Structures are given as structure tokens and as C-alpha cells.
Amino acid sequence: MNRDIDKDGYYIGNELKWSTEDILIRATDLDINLTEKQAESVLIATFKDNEYIMEMIGEVICGVINHMIETGALETKPPMCAHCGDIEVEVEGQPCSKHCRDGYIADWLTEK
Questions:
Q1: DSSP annotation string for the chain
Q2: Residues 63 and 86 in one domain
Q3: Claim to verify: residue 66 and residue 19 sit in the same structural domain
Q4: Burial class (CB in 10 A: 0-12, 13-18, 19+), 83
Q5: How many CB atoms sit inside 10 A of residue 81's CB?
Q6: CA neighbours closer than 13 Å in the CB half-sphere of residue 67
Q7: Which pLDDT tens digit goes with each residue over 49-106?
Q8: How far apart are CA 105 and CA 112, in angstroms?
């Protein structure tokens, strides 16, 4: 397993860890003096229920997926026949032919 992914599949890299020290540094850059308590308030307000951050991360994830596909770093597989698995189809879960459709339906009825 990748060391930046925990056992539950969550990313745990340092980039997502922000502290009051980060807030104090940025406040200093703005020539503003904050107490530790104020820095805590800013930190919580920055991340708690922040739809903008969640949307931005989602957009970046989509961009990375597309970039990795375009550069060949991420391979995608086309949907294959739901019955034989050998022939490419247009839509995931569909059979490739009447023969496979009949077999797929027969298998499905047998499972019920």
C-alpha cells in the first residue's frame, strides 16, 4: 500500500495538514498579529463545511484523471460484453450479440 494512503483509502500526505502555525505565518505576511486562539478560529472557519474547497479539490481530481489518461499514465479499459467479456461494447453491462444476450439472460434467471 502507498504510504500516503491510509488503510481506509484516505490520502494522508502533509499537503492536507494545516496548523495554527500556517495561519500565523500568513497573518504575519498580511502584517496582522493574531493570538493562538484567533489562529484556531481562522483555521476552523477555513475548512469547516467549506463547499468551495471541496469543489476545487473535485475539479483538480477530474483534471488529474484527464491529464493522466492523455499522457498515458492512466490506462482506461473500454466496456466489455457483460456475458463473454471478450468483445468491446458501447455501454457497460450490455451484451455484444444476440447469442450473448440470450446467455446473459439465462444466467441471470438461473441466479434468481
A1: --TTB-TTS-B--GGG---HHHHHHHHHHTT----HHHHHHHHHHHHTT-HHHHHHHHHHHHHHHHHHHHHTSS-----B-TTTS-SB-SSTT--SSHHHHHHHHHHHHHH-
A2: no
A3: yes
A4: buried
A5: 19
A6: 6
A7: 899 999 999 999 999 999 999 998 998 888 899 889 899 888 888 889 999 888 888 8
A8: 11
- Scored b (16 or more CB within 10 A) or e, 90-100 reads eeeeebbeeeb
pLDDT digits (tens, 9 = 90+) for 74-86: 988 888 998 898 9
CB atoms within 10 A of CB 42: 15
Q: What are phi and psi of 85, to 5 degrees?
A: 75, 5
Domain limits for position 99:
77-112
The sign of the dihedral angle between the CA atoms of 87, 82, 85, 74 is positive
CA distance 11 to 49: 19
- What gap in Å lies between CA 101 and CA 40, rounded to an integer? 60
Residue 8 included in any domain: no
